[in-house]
Design brief:
This protein is of the alpha/beta class. The chain folds into 2 domains: about 120 residues, Rossmann fold; about 110 residues, Rossmann fold. It has 12 helices and 7 strands. Strand 1, helix 1 and strand 2 form a beta-alpha-beta unit.
Length: about 250
């Protein structure tokens, strides 16, 4: 079988992109090099910060560089495009309109997973840009899923963790994250969406938990299956058990 070639608009941030590629390789049921996906990766950390523009339109917009990145990937043979940055999905409609190949809509797919698992209430951990643009909230509302977000102090703490620890390559402050998560579960959150791809590194450093819906893991699984490659049995089983028929 000839697999589709995956294009990745990366560098948003760089560590999350590197981990995303690792996830794809680990999730693919391949016994030889030749059975793995071909990936074309643009590591472009020069793309303007997505949150900065969403919060202040006088800042430089990342839309044109994102479109340029997608077109560059298509020129290099990409059949499908993934963006391991949740906040970048704010620009999804304009980006897809300009590109001639499908772009995976991560936020929509997470909503379908939660709906299939019959999750009534979730907590959202994400950047200020993602929260204020209501990317997750709008999608969840369509599906009848309620949500909770951190209070102002906790959201400031979360942004500090994302920008001044994870993006800066420093150790993740576990106690601070645990405090924020407890705040959300105390309000009835049945699952916690790790709605910033940088936060996926939390699981890598501190272990898996059934509490988390990891955006980067969902995107990696979708990338494997939409490029026509099989998932490993344990990953396929996980998504079946969690209502992920749309993923596999």
């Amino acid at each position: 079988m000839i697999l589709k070639r995956l294009g990745i608009i990366g560098g948003l941030g760089p560590m999350a992109t590197a981990y995303f590629m690792e996830l794809i390789i680990r999730m693919t049921d391949a016994k030889t090099d030749q059975e793995h996906l071909e990936m074309v990766i643009l590591n472009r950390p020069s793309i303007p910060d997505r949150t900065s523009y969403i919060l202040d339109h006088t800042k430089e917009s990342p839309l044109a560089p994102l479109i340029k990145g997608g077109k560059d990937l298509i020129d290099m043979g990409a059949d499908i495009i993934a963006i391991p940055c949740v906040t970048a999905h704010f620009y999804f409609d304009e980006l897809q309109q300009e590109l001639s190949v499908p772009v995976i809509h991560l936020i929509r797919e997470i909503g379908h997973l939660l709906q299939k698992e019959k999750i009534a209430r979730v907590g959202i951990l994400a950047t200020d840009g993602t929260i204020q643009s209501r990317l997750f909230q709008s999608e969840l509302k369509k599906l009848g899923i309620s949500y909770v977000i951190p209070n102002e102090d906790s959201q400031r703490m979360l942004m500090d963790i994302i920008y001044n620890h994870i993006k800066a390559g420093k150790t993740i402050p576990t106690k601070d994250i645990q405090r924020i998560i407890k705040e959300l579960t105390d309000q009835g959150a049945m699952r916690i969406i790790l709605g910033c791809t940088e936060l996926s590194l939390l699981k890598r450093e501190h272990g898996r938990s059934p509490l988390y819906i990891d955006a980067l893991e969902v995107l990696a699984a979708l990338s494997v299956t939409q490029c026509d490659a099989p998932l490993t049995k344990d990953i396929a089983r996980f998504f079946v058990e969690h209502g992920g028929s749309k993923v596999i």
